[in-house]
Amino acid sequence: MDEPKPRSEVKLKIAVSGAADTGYCAPDALEKTKGLGHEIASRGYILITGATTGAPFWAAIGAKEADGLVVGISPASTEREHVEKYKLPMEFHDLIMYTGFGYSGRNLLMTRTADAVLISCGRIGTLNEFTDVFEDNKPIGVLTGTGGAADEIEEIVKKSHRGPGKIVYDSDPKRLLSRVVELIQKDKAAAV
Known about the structure:
Helix 1 (about 30-40) packs across helix 2 (about 55-65). This protein has a seven-stranded parallel sheet, sandwiched between helices. Helix 6 (about 155-160) links the parallel strand 6 (about 140-145) and strand 7. The relative contact order is 0.17. The protein has one domain (about 15-190): Rossmann fold, CATH 3.40.50. It starts with 12 loop residues before the first strand and ends with a helix. About 45% of the residues lie in helices and about 15% in strands. The protein is an alpha/beta fold.
């Protein structure tokens, strides 16, 4: 019997974090976020979302338009709770994992699952995801010009006096993703 062949390469997992309520986002934030999802999928990476509405949902739409793989991490315990209690979508995801941990627990699992987190627009939940990934010293990409928390993070980091972290800021989705992937590759090379 032949020995199984090892996997040649594990795909990168990129999470997109952003506002579920997009009323506070810049006018072009959702199109930019959709472009971010499309770019993630076009490069063969896996998109991770909080299985939610708003900016992450638009990233999922973009990824699926590029025939990408989208994994959602839900705060709910079951599909029924996901839809009925949390009123979250099922569409544009290939797999949704039900954590039963509420939003804060879901946020931690989402950021820990990803190799990097990209932030678009955002409110307090996005800041929670940002601090989780910042504390884990993982690469972060901030899509600037999208409004909300995304446009405040650089100032928050300066005022925190904790150093710059592994954060890149860019208003262009393609360029942002390229810069974040460079950080991921540096991390992976250093771990070998």
